[in-house]
Design a protein that fits this description.
Blueprint (H helix, E strand, L loop, with lengths): L2 E15 L2 E14 L9 H23 L4 E2 L2 E2 L2 E3 L15 E3 L2 H15 L17
Antiparallel strand pairs: 1-2, 3-4, 5-6
């Protein structure tokens, strides 16, 4: 039904390998494709699971990836790539992406357009949406 580009995580590394200078890097594109997922009868029950699990989830995240991002001491929301209305797993690590509050608001506002037939997310975007 269309895809939204949510994040582009760029990783660069410089250091030494076997005493020689080395560098590597890559990019990870995170998208959300709005498929014809059936809606669930009670998405609020999934939201409650996330609310109860949020702190523990962030602690587990920190063990592997470092402190959960925050702005001025306020933790970023965890955005669920596959949303609760369409049956997204509320605690699956591969389904949750930390995003700043204002970005989370924009993403959530665009989700209905993603699932709407004939929405703007069906049209192809630029080959490279931005340049470094």
């Amino acid at each position: 039904m269309g895809c939204m580009w949510l994040a582009d995580i760029k990783g660069d590394w410089q250091g030494r390998y076997l005493f020689l200078p080395a560098e590597a890097g890559g990019r990870l594109a995170i998208t959300h494709c709005c498929c014809d997922y059936p809606t669930v009868a009670d998405p609020e029950s999934l939201r409650k699971v996330w609310s109860r699990s949020r702190i523990r989830f962030r602690e587990e995240w920190a063990k592997e990836l470092g402190t959960w991002p925050n702005t001025a001491g306020r933790a970023w929301p965890g955005h669920h790539l596959r949303d609760f209305l369409h049956g997204g797993d509320p605690t699956a690590p591969g389904n949750i992406l930390p995003v700043p509050d204002e970005v989370h608001t924009v993403i959530n506002a665009e989700y209905p357009a993603c699932y709407a037939p004939g929405g703007k997310w069906l049209t192809p975007g630029p080959e490279r949406p931005y340049a470094d």
